[in-house]
Design goal:
The protein has about 70 residues and is α+β, with helices and mostly antiparallel strands. The chain has one domain. It has two helices and five strands; from the N terminus they run ββββααβ. Helix 1 packs antiparallel against helix 2. The protein starts with a strand and ends with a strand. About 20% of the residues are buried. The model has no long low-confidence stretch (mean pLDDT about 95).
Length: about 70
């Protein structure tokens, strides 16, 4: 799985997606994985004008997660 850098975000550094698992790396260096995320949600995140806002509105607190 490849992590895709996210530029122009004050919170997110990179994101990746594989087999229903969304990986988010924050600028702090911490990485989380979110389970059972539809691929369409990942695609919408990557195409959002503000990826940080999209993450907070549609991913955070909506999917089960684990800190890595």
């Amino acid at each position: 799985m490849n992590m895709i850098p996210i530029v122009n975000s004050s919170d997110l550094a990179a994101a990746g997606y594989e087999n229903g698992i969304l990986y988010i790396e924050f600028l702090s260096g911490t990485t989380y994985r979110y389970f059972d995320v539809p691929e369409a949600v990942f695609n919408s995140l990557m195409n959002a004008n503000s990826r940080g806002r999209y993450f907070h509105a549609f991913i955070k607190n909506h999917y089960r997660y684990q800190r890595l």
